[in-house]
Amino acid sequence: MLHSEPDLQQLARAIKQWGAELGFADVRIADVDLSHAEAGLQAWLDAGRHGEMDYMASHGMKRARPAELVPGTVRAICARMDYLPMSTRPDWRETEVARLSDPQAAVVSVYARGRDYHKVLRSRLQQLAERVTQAIGEYGYRVFTDSAPVMELPLAEKAGLGWRGKHTLMLNREAGSMYFLGEILVDLPLPVDEPASAHCGQCQACIDVCPTQAILGPGRLDARRCISYLTIELKSSIPEDLRPLIGNRVYGCDDCQTACPWNKFAQRASVPDFDERNGLGSASMVELFAWTEEEFNRRLEGSPIRRIGHERWLRNIAVGLGNAAGSVKGDAGIVAALRARADHPSEMVREHVAWALARHTSD
After folding, report:
1. Where is the protein situated, by its record's location annotation (predicted)?
2. Is position 146 annotated as part of the catalytic site?
3. pTM value?
4. Is 33 annotated as contributing to ligand binding?
5. Integer angstrom CA distances of residue 69 from 32, 45, 72
6. Closest by alpha carbon to 258, among 177, 204, 199, 320?
7. Is 206 marked within a binding site?
8. pLDDT at residue 65 in the model
9. Of 2, 127, 228, 354, which one's alpha carbon is 20 to 30 angstroms from that of 199?
10. CA 184, CA 130: separation in Å to the nearest integer?
């Protein structure tokens, strides 16, 4: 399909307006040449820093070549959506840090306390893509939300949504990093936006705060040590030497984000989907550890947490309960909760429970 240049300029402006109406905080457009990112991706994979995330390696350089993934692609419409719950208080970062010091608290990443972002963004990106169809007729497109081998951060960076911080997450001067990204790959030669410049300067708060030292240097992450990887992506046992460093983080980790000065500008979500459910911002580990598999599946329906399954949920919380021994060793409630799971059918759960009990009952 042929489009005249004035039409494309007007269409690009309309796409951004439609995106705002759908709840996106910003929508920008990039070309899809990611050749500059290929060497870094290959080096990261060669070093094995992707851990058990085999899908990262299986697609090889296709991740950096959107036109190979979706033939005909010439542009990426990149969107971001803020996810801090609407009721988030101005001192939310201090509150999150304080919970890390509470030996009974179950700390769940802020992004995971509401509805699964995959569902929210995908639906709204699809609506945006269909709005374009209504305006110009049929065209080639495909919607992505962290759901296929697409290097969304380099694309978002090219589009001008922000810059890649030293923790490898996207940063924006007006919104910090508390947002999700999504893309629509299209065959329309839309006008592209200017990339954003970096503004981390000499700050390395994210590197210094990382509990497991997973950030090896500016922009260099070893996923195998990252608590988000260990509690979400890792399917097997958590390495014993890393368990004490996880503390009471039972799903994901926000430390590098709460430490980042730019997140004083983090924006509240414009949609209710990311509002907290099941009290996950204030729940105790003993409370969550008691959930049966049926209860886990029912309560977390529509939540990103449900993807890890009940077994890994128990594994993660067992580690947190074991780490509580550093402050409340031998706590009767914690010990009773662990003993109730000591004979769990899963060998992995039993192993982590035994480790945690040993920390509470050893001399």
Report:
1. Cytoplasm
2. yes
3. 0.91
4. no
5. 11, 19, 9
6. 177
7. yes
8. 72
9. 228
10. 11
Contact by Cβ (8 Å): 141, 184: yes
Query: Which tokens go with 180?
Result: 């999700």
Flag residues of the chain having pLDDT under 70.
1-6, 37-64, 147-149
Q: What is the sign of the dihedral through the CA atoms of 123, 127, 133 and 136? A: negative
260 is in an annotated binding site: yes
Q: What is the 3-state secondary structure (H, E, C) of the chain?
A: CCCCHHHHHHHHHHHHHHHHHCCCCEEEEEECCCHHHHHHHHHHHHCCCCCCCHHHHHCHHHHHCHHHHCCCCCEEEEEEEECECCCCCCCHHHHHHHHCCCCCECEECHHHCCCCHHHHHHHHHHHHHHHHHHHHCCCCEEEECCCCCCCHHHHHHHHCCCEECCCCCEEECCCECCEEEEEEEECCCCCCCCCCCCCCCCCCHHHHHCCCCCEEECCEECHHHCHHHHHHHCCCCCCCCCHHHHCCEEECCCHHHHCCHHHHHCCECCCHHHCCCCCCCCCEHHHHHCCCHHHHHHHCCCCHHHHHHHHHHHHHHHHHHHHCHHHHCCCHHHHHHHHHCCCCCCHHHHHHHHHHHHHHHCC
Which of the following is catalytic: 146, 187, 275, 331?
146
The token pair at 171 is 């940063």
pLDDT tens-digit readout, 101-153: 999 999 999 999 999 999 999 999 999 999 999 999 999 999 998 766 678 88
